[in-house]
Design brief:
Layout: H1 2-17, E1 30-39, E2 48-56, E3 59-65, E4 80-93, E5 95-100, H2 106-115, H3 123-139, E6 142-147, H4 154-163, E7 171-174, H5 197-203, H6 209-222, E8 226-230, H7 247-259, E9 263-268, H8 271-279, E10 284-287, H9 293-302, E11 305-307, H10 325-333, H11 335-342, H12 362-369, H13 374-389, E12 406-409, E13 423-428, E14 431-435, E15 438-439
Parallel strand pairs: 1-4, 5-6, 6-7, 8-9, 9-10, 10-11
Antiparallel strand pairs: 1-2, 2-3, 4-12, 12-13, 13-14, 14-15
Length: 452
């Protein structure tokens, strides 16, 4: 009772002593009417003709037949209303890429591979790169991406700047440093830092279940949105394709990620490592080129997503050789085709960073070449990947309540999926980022864009 009286008296005294400050006036609602000649609102369902999408601030509030004006859209008189005329365009949801590396591009990777040097760009270089590459990625129509493996600073900084509205870019789900064992694919520590505990945490290098748990918690503390680990070797590091983590290390990583509310993604080629990760409850298998029938059955039963990154094998420019092994292995095992035929959930992911950022949409052509219909490929990059990301309530379709993430094309991608290589309009969270094939200035958003 005494404490309550003190608090009440103090509040009254402050109210008396401090002049009242007028409350900040709320910004008026901003509406955008998007007139779409053709609209694929829900990939997997038939497109509609002559539709209007009503956007209020950052979200969609209506999708209606016909080309509505403000009165027909029931917008109150005097409200700010903009019109986006896409009557000669094919409109679909913003695209998503579940596997990118925004801190670098082949010019870095190629030189490192040729020198046998696995040291990545510095954080400063990586951040500058990521600013440029994030803009390119958004220009290509990708409004949400998952960055799987950079460092403990670079892409975090760019994600935060985008979320704060200081620059244009896609929403980024960041893993930070990919977790790897000493000497494994993803270990970028110089030899003289291999025994430094703090350096190992920053790099994500871990051996044994306890150290792997600590590595997950460190990335979580940094603000990671997802945990990525390399359960096998890889092409980029010349470490082979066989397992590099023991089952108890994989289980420690996955269970700790889930404990702190994060999903886990496993870079995995070997069928043994794939099955170990699936049994541990991993959320997605990245690449998976050696996936066998038993692994496919396990993934389907567990609901594990495959992120096939076909673009990373056809071929990644990091290899300046004819007919690289990645192409031979992919064609020999046909993991994508077999997983698709079996009904495994396939999310869209490219491994952009092993090739030029902004060319992400070439993955659509490969998915169709290897058995998907154009509609299935588009659904993979919207509805299915939104499910993997855990953002179905906010993204993946053009429906009331969703974030206003839209892209528009001059041609129908259901007739020719190659049309997705030429995105000429992008809206992200109600803000127009690209119009008539040209990106807007990078630091021109007046307000922070919507985040999850």
């Amino acid at each position: 009772m005494k404490n309550s009286w003190i608090a009440t008296s103090l509040a009254a005294a402050l109210a008396f002593a401090v002049p009242a400050v007028p409350a900040a006036q709320a910004a008026p609602d901003r509406y955008t009417l998007v007139h779409a000649g053709a609209l694929l609102a829900v990939p997997g369902k038939a497109p509609q003709r002559e539709m209007t999408i009503v956007v209020k601030n950052t979200r969609i509030v209506g999708v209606s037949p016909g080309y509505l004006d403000a009165a027909a859209a029931a917008i109150a008189p005097g409200a700010q209303v903009d019109l986006v005329d896409l009557r000669d365009r094919f409109v679909l949801p913003g695209l998503m890429d579940a596997h990118v590396h925004l801190h670098g591009e082949p010019s870095f990777s190629r030189h490192r591979a040729e020198r046998g040097d696995r040291n990545p760009p510095t954080s400063s270089e990586g951040a500058v790169n990521a600013i440029v590459y994030a803009r390119r990625t958004l220009s290509a129509g990708f409004t949400i991406v998952r960055d799987l493996g950079s460092d403990d600073e670079a892409v975090f900084a760019v994600r935060n700047a985008i979320n704060a509205g200081r620059m244009i870019g896609p929403r980024i789900l960041v893993s930070g440093s990919a977790l790897a064992v000493t000497g494994g694919h993803g270990d970028s520590l110089p030899l003289d830092e291999t025994g430094d505990p703090q350096a190992r945490l920053r790099d994500g290098t871990c051996d044994g279940p306890m150290e792997c748990r600590a590595a997950v918690r460190y990335q979580y503390k940094l603000g990671a949105d997802v945990i990525k680990f390399t359960s096998t070797g890889g092409f980029g590091s010349n470490t082979g394709l066989e397992p590099q983590l023991f089952p108890d290390e994989i289980e420690a990583i996955v269970s700790t990620a889930h404990l702190v509310g994060l999903k886990a993604a496993a870079h995995a080629y070997s069928p043994i490592a794939i099955k170990q990760a699936v049994r541990a409850g991993v959320d997605s298998i990245e690449h998976g080129f050696l996936l066998d029938d038993e692994g496919i059955a396990l993934m389907k039963k567990a609901g594990t997503f495959l992120v096939p990154t076909l673009s990373a094998s056809y071929p990644p420019p990091v290899f300046r050789i004819r007919d690289p092994e990645s192409v031979r292995i992919r064609n020999e095992h046909k993991a994508f085709e077999r997983a698709h035929a079996a009904g495994v959930k396939i999310a869209f992911g490219t491994d952009a960073g092993t090739f030029a950022h902004g060319d992400n949409a070439k993955e659509f052509g490969l998915m169709v070449k290897f058995g998907m219909t154009p509609m299935e490929a588009i659904r993979s990059a919207t509805v299915v990947t939104a499910d993997l990301f855990g953002v179905t309530a906010d993204a993946g379709t053009i429906e009331p309540g969703k974030l206003a993430d839209l892209v528009a094309l001059a041609a129908n991608p259901l007739d020719d999926v190659g049309a997705l290589l030429k995105v000429d309009f992008v809206m992200k969270g109600g803000q127009v980022a690209k119009r008539d094939g040209r990106m807007l200035e990078p630091f021109s958003y007046p307000q922070p864009s919507a985040t999850f």
